[in-house]
Amino acid sequence: MYTPKHFKIEDEQQIYEFLKQNSFGMLISSHDRLSASHLPFSIDQKAKKLYGHMARANQQWKELEGDEVLIIFQGPHAYISPQWYAEENTVPTWNYMAVHIYGKFVIQNNGETVMNQLESMVDTYESGFETPWKVDISSEYNQNLVKHIVGFEIEIKNIQCKFKLNQNHPIERRKNAIHGLRTTNQHESIQIADAMEKSLSDH
């Protein structure tokens, strides 16, 4: 990922917080051909691993044992109009937040481990609800479903993080862009405005 110094994020805690908030990623591989799957992931910062699963009918996993793969995690993104800067000689751009992870793909053959990973993933995503749903992995219904998926882990080798939030612009221009984003009243524009404000307060 092309990442000019203005936009490069190296703080590990900040990166993992982003991953936990944006954990639906795109698994990309190039064994004999380019393949991509859109999947939810569990993030283990301490072990430096990602955990996931995909349909057994998905051909991608059959090619990947031991291969290097790329997982892309996309955060909010928004168009930036030059009119918001209220200055001449400005152009449109697109602000966004993204993390690229390169790692080794390892198929998880231990059924109990896969079920534990599934339970942990469900618990993570249910935790934000007032009354979280609890999965019964041991039920006959779920046991049959598990037979149709393949669990895997990614041993993280390299992380690239880019938050393109107008950091290369003067502060006043950035504030004007934040105001402009908020006038659009679009969900991701508001998220980008929030991220831009945070980047201002961090410096």
From TrEMBL:
Species in which this protein is naturally found: Chengkuizengella axinellae
SUPFAM superfamilies, alphabetized: FMN-binding split barrel (SSF50475)
PANTHER family in the record: PROTEASE SYNTHASE AND SPORULATION PROTEIN PAI 2
Superkingdom per UniProt: Bacteria
Phylogenetic classification of the source organism: Bacteria, Bacillati, Bacillota, Bacilli, Bacillales
Name of protein: FMN-binding negative transcriptional regulator
InterPro entries in the record: Split_barrel_FMN-bd, TR_PAI2-type
